[in-house]
Amino acid sequence: MHPWTKHEYASFCVPIADCGNKEGNNSERKADSMSSNLELYVKNGCPWCHKVLSFMEANDIELPLHNIDESEADREHLVEVGGKRQVPCLLIDGKALYESSDIIDYLKEHVVEGEAQEAAPAEEPAAAAGAHCTLDGHCSF
Asked: Environment class of residue 121 by beta-carbon count within 10 Å: exposed (0-12), middle (13-18) or buried (19+)?
C-alpha cells in the first residue's frame, strides 16, 4: 500500500496509464498526456498544492501523487530529481515543473481537452505548517 492512500488526496492516485481507460470515465485527455510520465509532488497543508489538486478534481484529472510529508523516500527523490525543496512539483518525464499556476497551465494544455473547468474559489491561502509558503505559488520544506 502506498503511503498516500490514507490521505485525503487518495482519490487522485492512479497510474497515468489508467487515466481515461476506465469504463464510464467520460473525461477527455489529449493523446500526448498518455505518452508522458506525469507525477505530482505535494505536501499536507500547502495551499498551492491544494490549488493544483482542486483544479485536477474539477477536470477529472488523475495522476500519481507523492506526499512528501508522508514519505521520506518521496521527499528525497523530489530534491534529487527536481533540485529544489519546493512543492507543488509536477515531474514530466523526470523533469520538474514548479509553481502552481504553471502546473495548471501545463495540465490545461496537455491533459484537458476542450474548456478547462476552473476550481471553485477558495479562501485566501494560509501558510502550511512547517513550511515557508510564498505568494508566488510554492511552499518549501
From this structure: exposed
Cα-Cα-Cα-Cα torsion 67, 25, 58, 94, nearest 10 degrees, comes to 40
Cα–Cα distance measured from residue 133 to residue 137, given in angstroms and rounded to the nearest whole number: 8
* Alpha-carbon separation of residue 94 from 38, 61, 105 (angstroms): 8, 19, 18
Q: What is the model's pLDDT at position 118?
A: 76
Sign of the C-alpha dihedral computed for residues 31, 112, 12 and 136 taken in this order: positive
61 CB contacts (<8 Å, ≥6 apart)? 12, 19, 27, 29, 55, 107, 111, 112
Would strands 138-140 and 132-134 be described as parallel, antiparallel, or unpaired? antiparallel
Maximal CA-CA distance, the chain = 41
Whose grid coordinates read 502550511? 128
Residue-wise pLDDT for 41-68, tens only, equals 999 999 999 999 999 999 999 999 999 9
| Residue 45, CA atoms < 13 Å, CB-side half-sphere | 12
Using the CB atoms, write b or e for 46-74: b if 16+ within 10 Å. bbbbbbbbbbbbebbbbbbbbbbbbbeeb
